[in-house]
Write a sequence for this structure.
């Protein structure tokens, strides 16, 4: 998929993705933003991180670079770029922001704004060990597969069981808010194929 086609597909509106695996409206609504970086290789890839295991929220989970929107952040986009710099040393000037996906609530009380950004291949990235255990990618082609993602039953820390979305990856388990954001992105890409 070439850059122009990607921009065209993501510029159009889409219905909100099903969110049964995201917390109900009891979330406190702490404002957060994540960057959804798409690396523009000949076969585009989505950049993800694996969070450090000692973190208080979402420890060890696969996520997008991002975090709370601070008072000094002018917008969710500014917060997403700041967090990407802090977490993986992604220079803001290397990212071409092209839009947002639907806001989602997480089970830990965050209201997350996903911001889509295009990234040229070869930008050197370095995980901040205090926040990120690993940088990984997921082929964009996985999002175009109508058989993905899969629903899976998972036992939560509370002891409750919930059906969640899970995206395939050779080495990692992609679920929760990250899976919901990927589903939203996938629907935008599929609906305008």
């Amino acid at each position: 998929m070439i850059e122009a086609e990607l921009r065209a597909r993501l510029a159009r509106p889409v219905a909100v993705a099903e969110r049964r695996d995201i917390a109900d409206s009891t979330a406190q609504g702490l404002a957060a933003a994540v960057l959804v970086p798409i690396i523009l290789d000949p076969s585009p890839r989505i950049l993800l991180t694996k969070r450090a295991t000692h973190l208080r929220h979402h420890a060890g989970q696969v996520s997008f670079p991002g975090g709370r929107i601070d008072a000094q952040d002018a917008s969710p986009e500014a917060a997403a770029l700041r967090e990407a710099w802090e977490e993986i040393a992604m220079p803001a000037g290397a990212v071409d922001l092209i839009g947002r996906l639907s806001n989602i609530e997480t089970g830990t009380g965050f209201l997350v704004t996903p911001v889509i950004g295009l990234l040229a291949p070869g930008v050197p990235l370095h995980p901040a060990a205090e926040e990120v255990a690993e940088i990984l990618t997921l082929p964009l082609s996985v999002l175009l597969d109508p058989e993905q993602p899969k629903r899976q039953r998972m036992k939560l820390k509370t002891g409750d069981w919930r059906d969640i979305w899970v995206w395939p990856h050779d080495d990692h388990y992609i679920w929760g808010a990250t899976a919901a954001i990927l589903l939203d992105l996938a629907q935008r890409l599929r609906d305008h194929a």
Notes: Residues 13-28 have pLDDT under 50 and may be disordered. The radius of gyration is 16 Å.
